[in-house]
Structures are given as C-alpha cells and as structure tokens.
Amino acid sequence: MSGKRIDVIVPGELGADDRKIWREIRAASGAPANPFMDPAFTVAVGRVRPRARVAVLREEAGPVGYFPHERAFAGRGRAIGLGVSDSQGAVLRPGIRPDARALLRACGLSSWEFDNLEAGQALFVPHAVEELASPVVDLGAGFERYAESLRRASPGFLRQTLAKERRLARQVGEVRFVYDEPDPGALRALMRWKSAQYRRTGRRDRFAQAWITRLVDILARSEDPGCRGVLSVLYAAGRPVAAHFGLRSRTVLSWWFPAYDPAYGKYSPGLLLHLRMLEAAAADGIGLVDLGSGPARYKESFKTRDLTVHEGAVVCAGVGGAVHRLGREPVRAARRFVRERPGLANGAARTLEGLGRLRVR
C-alpha cells in the first residue's frame, strides 16, 4: 500500500465530493451503471447495518478508490449488503491495484466474502472459487426490437403470455400496469407475497430480517438518480395481482424482489408483469435489465445474454482467516456440489418446498 493512505469511515461520512468521484470512477470503468455499485446503495446499507464501512484510498491529489464492506466477528468481512446485493466489488481508478490482502489488513479484516462479484474486478477475481451466470435483458435498441427477437427465439412463449393477459382481463377485470407505483400498500402486499413464497419453498424469509425490510423502505423513498427503488405493480379489477421492487440507476434496472398473488397463478401474472416492466423500462431510458444470478426458468425465457459474476473470498493468514474457512467453506462446497448436479438440485428443491408447505400449514 506504499504511497497511498487508507481511511476507513462509516458510509454516512461520504460527502458530496466522494459521491461525485465514486461515480466518475464507475463511469470511466465502462462497467454497467448497476445501482448496487452506486454510493447511494452503500449509504443506505450503512443506515441499517452498523458495521458497514468504506475504505477510502487516497493519493496526494485526492481519493483514487473506494472499498465498501461490512465487518463481523474476528474481522470477518463481507460485501456490502451481502445476501441482497447483486453486484459487488471495489471502485478503483484505472491503474490502482493494491494487494488484496494488504487492503484487507488496512481495513482490519481477516477475510472478505463475496457472492456476486462483478466481472472485471481484477483485484478479487483471483480469489473466486466459482463463476456464475447472471442473465440480462438488453433494451438499448428499444422494446419493439427486443420483442421481435423474443418472438423469433420463442414465439410460443410470447403468444401464450399475451393470451393469459387477455384471459385475466376477461375473467377477472380490467388489467392495468403501473411502472413506478408510489402506494406503500402495494409494497406491503409484495412483501407479504414474497414472505409466503419463501416459506412455501422452504427458503429463509428475507423479510423476516428487520434490516432488509428497513433497507427496502429507505430505497423506496430514495430520489437519488444513481440508486433508487422502483415498485412496479400489475392490477386486475383494481386489485394488485403481481409486483416487483427493484433498484435503478439512469440506465440499469436491477431485478430484486418479484412476487405475485398465488390466487391468480393460472394467469402467470409474474410473467405479464415482467413483460410490461421491460416495455416501460425501455421507454424510461433503461438500456439494461439485470435479472441477477441464480437459476429460474423465466430468466431463461426473457434474457438476451449472460454477464458473469463470481463467488468466493479473500482470506488472510491467521486466526480470523481460519474462523472464516471453518464457518463458510464447508457450506459453500456443499452448495456447489448440489448446483453441479441438476438432478440432486431438483430433488433438494422439491424437498424444501414440501417442508415449506408443512410449515405454512
């Protein structure tokens, strides 16, 4: 770290100049303007996670990099918002590449874990243990051009989805879509549906964690153009039947929390919502919709290509590093073992869903 000074601050101490420099570095990198990599997301996480920090790398001329992270027991570090953040890493000027472990030690960390490290993070990619596909939808040429490519690639899918929308209108009532819904009641409905889905499928309910609910509330009220929440809702007969809460920058929309009312499941309201969202997002200047890593059939139907993200950890020698290895590596290895065996993964998913149904009862 010779020739540089590193100050570790809480996110709330990032000033207007820091945010400006952070965004300039991101813009110069050529990476997509993913809202999870914006300083506003780090500041929002800092309001709900007391151990959130930002390492500011400085040279004589001023800041040359930012490394957002969270710190836990024994100096175990994690990506900012790990568990809900879909794009992670450091923000460094070109040519700035400190030693990863030296950076961690300067932050008082013994390890730093990531599960959605963005491509191009040369500082941390050598420490990745797995490469994951993150599907995206390119809308730069406009929605009509995208819809045409969707018709060519999967004509039956688009035709059936639109037919279900007409059936929903006929059998339930007028279908209406709102791209940026300010009604907090609709957001609460989405959270209820999503919590029920988590329990039904045997997964941990993220909205049972107070910090995640508070983070969503903060971002839903944000007006920062670099990172703000967008709640999109599909209504039938004046009643919400599907909703999605995501984050957007000026040009990128990140898919985050989608859910629907199971009572209307036969109409595939989630797919209808997704299609209308893509159309509205393109009209609103969004050029890229990031669907996030993780397998899902609907992502395969809508995507135009995949980005790459990485999972892994930088681990320093010492007690803290050993604590990380004992606590995380067996879990990660088990998940990787299941993911690499589709039959086993499908069986595990069915088992979890069965257990979830028992819990719901």
UniProtKB/TrEMBL annotation:
InterPro entries: Acyl_CoA_acyltransferase, BioF2-like_GNAT_dom. It comes from the Bacteria. Pfam families: Acetyltransf_6. Residues 159-300 form the BioF2-like acetyltransferase domain. Transmembrane segments: none annotated. This is Cellulose biosynthesis protein CelD. It comes from Streptomyces ambofaciens. The lineage of its organism: Bacteria, Bacillati, Actinomycetota, Actinomycetes, Kitasatosporales.
